[in-house]
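Hey L., structure's done. Input below.
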Amino acid sequence: MPTVTLVGSFNVDHVWRCDQLPAPGATIAGRYDTGPGGKGFNQAIASARAGADTRFVCALGQDAGGQLARGLAADNGVTLMAQASTEPTGTAGIYVDAMGRNTIVIGAGANAELSIDFVEAQREAITGSRALLVQLESPLDSVLAALRAAREHGVPTLLNPAPANAATTPELLSLADVLTPNETEFAALLARHVGERVAPEDVAALDGQRLHALCREVLPRGTVVITLGATGVFISHAEEQLRGDIKPFYRHAAESVTAIDTTGAGDAFNGALAASLANAPESAFAEHVRFANRYAALSTERAGAALAMPMRADVQARFSD
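Output:
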């Protein structure tokens, strides 16, 4: 089976569902739940459930959170490659309002301990993959080590530059074959690397030619995929590599679903995109985007993050074409 390797974070999510997101100084009523999350783990579960043999490189504490990660990875067919840490397993506080919007606070814990040496020790897994997917809830130098190893061996690399306030460097971007920001993350990349100020809420409304030009400034070589929530997805390719597509840039509309929780939707998209690319590398990129878009849309009809990820069969049943 085609293999996807991820390097990333695991968190224990603490979720409060409220009628509205809390304002400073406010005390509001909510319903509490807890479960697994972390961008890396969410994407790993999505990749596995979307049909790829998935390996997950991470750091875990020797606590109940670490035990939860190990058990869920085994239950979902994810091969866990975990560095043992004396720090507590990562945590996240998540508030979700009645419209499905969320605000998240992260406590890195063990995630911040993932070392370059440990990542290097997983080089065989990385270089033997059909795709490498990384995010930025782990130390930047460790993420770079994984990307360099993949690039040296011709393994396609996907970089989800999240969260938006995470440090990024020109080298980091240059090692990405596919860059997958949402509108907030794309606006942050523009400000940091291009010197262009665009409000996140204005990204989706930009003219296609203008948005394509900005993507080319952020990532001169490679493909940029901007996830735009209810507006859909914008895809921008470098002119010399269209990845089987006809056009250098285009939009893909959002699927019609009844969203109850958007937490983890971006992670669902990324994990499904990596799995689709690994499963059918010869297919046009637009086909991979269509699958990932549908997978992410379906994930919003369930509450939660990692455990809300649908199975590949669910997507096929819902979207029969």
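The chain has eleven helices and 13 strands. The chain has one domain: 3-318.

-- N.
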